[in-house]
Amino acid sequence: MTATTRFDTWVFDLDNTLYPAECDLFAQIDTRMTAYVSALLQVDAIEARRVQKQYYFDYGTTLAGLMARHAVDPHDFLHHVHDIDVSPVSPDPELVQLVRALPGKRLVFTNGSHAHADRVVTRLGLDGLFDDYFDIAAAGFAPKPSRDAFDRLIAKHEFAPERAIMFEDLARNLEPAAALGMTTVLVRSGKDWSHEPEGARPAGRDDAAPAHVHHVTDCLKSFLRVYI
Fold this sequence. Notes:
By secondary structure, the protein is an alpha/beta fold. It has a six-stranded parallel sheet with strand order 3-2-1-4-5-6. Helix 2 (25-41) packs across helix 3 and helix 3 (45-59) packs across helix 4. The relative contact order is 0.17. Helix 7 (114-124) links the parallel strand 2 and strand 3 (132-134). The chain folds into two domains: 3-20 and 89-227, Rossmann fold (3-Layer(aba) Sandwich), CATH 3.40.50; 26-81, Orthogonal Bundle (DNA polymerase, domain 1), CATH 1.10.150. The protein has helices spanning 3-6, 25-41, 45-59, 62-70, 74-81, 93-100, 114-124, 147-157, 175-180, 220-227; strands at residues 9-12, 105-109, 132-134, 164-168, 183-187, 215-217.
């Protein structure tokens, strides 16, 4: 049985999964998050970054921590941090062909905003190929790897997890997917783009994959090309 007959739902993380981590969009987002936290808490950049990373580690995203601890308006935060230059992402005609060939539902599942997903997907040339951008707002602001985010995704799109495959650059975000019965693919990179606390970083190419990761690839296109 091939992947195209086994799966009828294809779930893709957005940042550093649909495009290479070497584009380093997160560096822009990271800087804007630090500035936002600094202004909100009236602290210097060093303290703001410490808080930012601690909330990421403790809550799954910086935003979740800011909402829990400081009642931040999530829409204001997302608008601010995603006001970035997406030109480092290049149009990818081969990826367009590969995604277009996938049968069934194609979903983007992101802890970012719908607007950010739309800008990046359009830049790649993939606009019109996804059934939905399931963003952090659609998840009720419960970020991956929260089980609630996955339950909301499945409820909205009514797919059987055992017939779904998920692609993601953060191993911890694949754990709930595997527990639900989805096939998981970890997309690794040679670039540590995140500078996150230990335990919350993306997997490097030399890192061993945890048991809930069923497949590992250094290139999304290569995986789709060969596995499909």
